[in-house]
Amino acid sequence: MSTTIYYGSVVNPVNLTSFQALPRCLLAVGATGCVEWLVEDVEDALVRETMGRMGCLDNVVIPLKETEFIMPGFIDTHTHAPQFRNIGSGQQYELLDWLSIVTFPTETKFADLDFARRTYSSVVRRIINNGTTTCCYYGTLHLEATKLLADIIKSYGQRAFVGKCNMDRNCPDYYVEPSAEASIDATESLISHIRSLDSNHTEEPLVQPILTPRFAISCSPPLLASLGKLVLSDSSLRIQTHISENESEIELTKELFPECPSYAHVYDSFGLLRSNTILAHAVHLEPHEMDLIAQRGAGISHCPTSNFNLSSGVAPVGEFLDRGIKVGLGTDVSGGYSPSILNSVQTASIAAKVVAMQAKGSKPTSGNFSDRQLSVATLLYLATLGGAEVCDLKERVGSFAPGKSFDALIVNVSDKGGNPCIWGTGEEEKGKAALEGMLERLLFCGDDRNIARVFIQGKLVGGTEF
Length: 466
Ligand code: GUN
Ligand code: ZN
Known about the structure:
Keywords: Hydrolase, Metal-binding, Zinc
Family: Belongs to the metallo-dependent hydrolases superfamily. ATZ/TRZ family.
Number of helices: 15
GO molecular function, one term: zinc ion binding
Cofactor: Zn(2+)
Bound molecules: guanine, zinc ion
């Protein structure tokens, strides 16, 4: 058996100078679906015996082909399930027009549960098969359709956060919640519903609710205040929203909240900026907002494909990392046109290069990341462990540290049946160099054809071989 394991047990991006490649390794996953054992250079018989003694009898020992490797699953920290209906269209608009002309008319259709069921079943399947093992989903404002989304995710075995949009103002009459009270009532019902899916589970459930105030513009102060009250009593409840994506959006936000010194302060003033808040975009933050976000421990979902596609701008990811702000990647469908985190990796790389090119000739910064391109190791980090940190899940996923859940991808970079642009014979290089070469090519020209098997919590749930 020819076995190679790649594992991403990386602690922070600063230490990511090289990959940890273990030739001839086997991986044991215990009955709980957690990683119990990582071994190197040992005989199979011995491994099996040891794992047997450890009680990992239903372990998974994963044999890998020459052109396969194993890596932690991707984490998508921001996407909109209903907007998959619009994927690849609407790129001629900027954010506020795009919402009213393209997005809201589509989202309103999710009042129809048959439509919602058909759409969400194919969306979730597609996201899993792209290698996303944890996903942060926005639904629509509809309670029933968003419950259905959570049910479908649960039945497919994906790890996810699911929220229904809170939006009680500045939206069209046909697509707006009637009051702050109605919005809060529906939110509380969704939380109860999702939590009831796993009521006898002792561990953190796979599918969890997340508060989803769409953005400050669409939420009245009483609604934001009630959401702030709701999270105050529940420290485990994550929050997701949009911030500083587009200049017109920022201008309108400042007009609506003149008492707040910045966009980030709007969320903070309602108690919605904390260590499990996920802020999507953050393209145009001012330095004092970054200070506040770092201080609160909130995370940023970097959505570079969407930021380019809707002409929003280029987020300074290197600066976020140098400031110690948590950063993960988001596909932001359908602002973004791809459901694959691999696409986000590629665009994140280009975005960092744009920042670096624009900074050429200016005074060098003292940090490791600001105004520089992102290394392959940092890109891998953003797609996995960085996302786990943003989701407040770093103890559970994002790498193969013992005790974490086995959320993993078996990736095949062979030219037979997979994506043919990736790899030739598999004989170009050996050992660590080969592994690093395979990883880089996967990140830059891979797609769902290369995702052979997807495991979540130790269970096979997707991939081309599923
Ligand atoms: N801001 C408020 N709603 C949205 C949305 O659906 N997509 C994006 N990209 N930005 C938003
Ligand atoms: Zn979004």
